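Morning!

This is the sequence you dropped in the shared folder:
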Amino acid sequence: MKKLMFHLIGNAHLDPVWLWDWREGLNEGLITSSPAGRSLT
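The structure's back. Tokens below.
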């Protein structure tokens, strides 16, 4: 039987990140990307 391979590509949109303080931008990026990271483990 042939193995199937799936490629998943995530997408996040943080529009006003350049207007934020760097700590707030970092926090939003981590919060946004953490569910994807959890699904890989």
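Headline: The CA atoms of residues 15 and 40 lie 25 Å apart.

More detail when I'm at my desk.
O.
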